[in-house]
Amino acid sequence: DGSPLVKYNDFWSPLQFLRRLLYTQRYFEAKDDDVILASVPKSGTTWLKALSFSIVNRTVYTIDQNPLLTCNPHALVPFLEHLQHEGNPGFISTPRIIATHIPFNNVPDSIRESKCRIIYICRNPLDQFISGRHFYQENNHVFRENKVEKDFELCEAFDLFCQGIYPYGPFWDHMLGYWNAHLKNPEKVLFLKYEDLKGDIALYIKKIAEFLGCPFSVEEEKQGLVEEIAKLCSFENLKNLEVNKSGYLSNGVKSSSFFRKGEVRDWGNYLSPAMAQRFQKVMYSKLEGSEVLWITSHSAILS
Length: 303
Ligand code: A3P
Hints:
By secondary structure, the protein is α/β, with parallel strands linked by helices. It is 45% helix and 9% strand.
């Protein structure tokens, strides 16, 4: 988006977040029952926030009273990086649900050391990249003050992306950090893919509930609660809610900018086959030997 990035502890942090990151690393105390949602920006964070909130609080709110109907998911589930700046907003959810874009090896120690659970969502990085470009353009009014000179042209931005120079990047290290943590302790870290959720959301709603220790009862399933949560949190439903159609979040970002297309492989409308090939090579060179490479094959990048 043109805002300065600084390399800190092996990742590229947006300059304006560095102070918050350092503060968080020093002062944040995770509780054993916290639920941490982790992702690279534009990988499905908003969707995961809506789903986790609805799953965890399903006995507190009926579907037609769910706060998602009147609040943007980002107003319900705060980012770790924002907590101290916004005076620790009251958590509407018990247990607490907190999101973060910070890579695994840089999250506060208490997140790694406590029993809190982490749900990671990743997405085909090319779709995430294209989604990010639209998001930054839509919210130019927020990012403008951090601009170095001007927006990067697509090719230039893509070149930087392939070098890993992107907010919270390199994305391959971001994925690998959480993937390896999942391999080491699958009960602590659940690793999800946006594309899989698009394929069978009911299955993943149940998986998330099981992982969080609150599986759906037979009775709840019979009542169709899984499907109701899927519908409530669907792209079409959230996008068309009045609260998400207009207005701004407290940081000035447009509520509507979190709901653009919600599709898989939209990158094909913007990037050339040559660009995709270059990207594929990068993925192979960085992720060879790790199962995380299936993210590209799964998404059939070159087909
Ligand atoms: P697109 O720009 O490709 O449409 P994040 O939430 O991490 O910022 O990611 C935003 C991306 O997720 C956007 O992708 C957005 O449209 C998509 N998205 C938001 N809510 C969604 C939902 N309920 N279901 C599926 N995709 C969703």
